Amino acid sequence: EKAGFKHFMAKEIAEQPVVIADALKHYIGTDGTSLNLPPEVDFATVDRITMVACGTASYACHVAKYWFEQIAGLPAEIDIASEFRYREPPLSPTSWALFVSQSGETADTLAALRYAKDHVAKTVSVVNVPTSSIARESDLSLPILAGVEVGVASTKAFTCQLTVLALLALKAAVDRGRLDAAGLATHLSALRNLPGLMNHALSLSQAIADIAEELAEAQDILFLGRGAMYPMALEGALKLKEISYIHAEGYASGELKHGPIALIDARVPVIVMAPRDALFEKTVSNMQEVMARHGKVLLISDAQGVAEAGSGTWATLTLPEAPPAFAPILYAVPAQLLAYHTAIAKGTDVDQPRNLAKSVTVE
Ligand code: M6R
Residue of the nearest CA to atom 16 in ligand 1? Predict the structure, then answer.
């Protein structure tokens, strides 16, 4: 069942290039340049979307907020389901609400969906289990096609959620007149290149295992990122604490000097997720503030980023250059492998971490 892997989590991390390629094949026309989404997915009259989820799925929404706003110019709100459901926020009747869930059975997300149903134009779910309650109760459900995910720590479901959300953001951009056929084709080609780039990231597994030997000694670890890499920092920290039980926090790089920098000393590893994009120099300057206080920096970037900013860091990981918009999907892989190998170094139960359930069906 584990297909030769030691753990389901390792197998599910390794499956990502294949399942993402499958999801792309399903939602992209055979010409490779057009979208193949159900006809009900039409954003022409939608003026806002609200995305609601829990845990890792909420971080997928957080990344997608950047895509909806930057690519489609569509205002997007995000919330975690346990807050949303009791806050009972006002929702516009011309808006859509999106619910993202691997299991489709998460109690808070289901309750949030039931609340939104009477308040928005359409409820849309992005789920892995097509027969689930959330899939059945939403007006429209889009499967992420990740296949069964057994590991409690979500990996391939996360990147497949991101993939489907990216395609939805592109559809919104087309429907709102923000993207012409050529622009769409360019984005779709960038997405179709991702599985190959992810294979490259997977080949860094041994280098990541070596870094993880030292991370396993830490008491606290910080993850930093800017833009859509900020939610990836949150996801990296969640994954690490779930399976290695090391205290980890993700922060937006720009928040560093508003508090967390007080934690930095030579014992605190700081993992900086920073592709060489438009925000790179800003993030690097935050990284240098960490190094000036003897923080141990692991810089995850591409070759150009590592060449420009790698000196003086504790360690670097070089990923292939990714299309800037969709880099978060690629950077999920090293974040997952760091958590996995750190947990292995600590000898914890990777697939069944203590206190956690795969599906949280009670609040
Ligand atoms: O099944 P769901 O996607 O609704 O589950 C949401 C969270 O419980 C889930 O993502 C959780 O945070 C994972 N253990 C993260 O690895």
Answer: 153
Full strand arrangement of the beta sheet holding 296-302: 247-252, 220-225, 269-273, 296-302, 315-319
Q: Is the dihedral of CA 18, 22, 23, 25 positive or negative?
A: positive
The structure's pTM equals 0.98
| Residues having CB within 6 Å of any atom of ligand 1 | 54-57, 101-103, 106, 109, 152-154, 242, 356, 359-360
Q: Is the pLDDT of residue 122 over 90?
A: yes
The model's confidence at residue 326, banded by pLDDT at 50, 70 and 90, is very high
SS3 181: helix
Residue 18's pLDDT band (cuts 50, 70, 90): very high
Phi/psi of residue 182, nearest 5 degrees: -70, -40
d(CA 246, CA 250): 13
Cα 226 to Cα 253: distance, rounded to the nearest angstrom:
6
- Average of per-residue pLDDT across 121-145: 98
What are the angstrom distances between the C-alpha of 274 and each of 97, 245, 303, 308, 315?
30, 25, 11, 12, 14
- ipTM of the predicted structure? 0.99
Nearest residue to 32 via CA among 219, 185, 142:
185
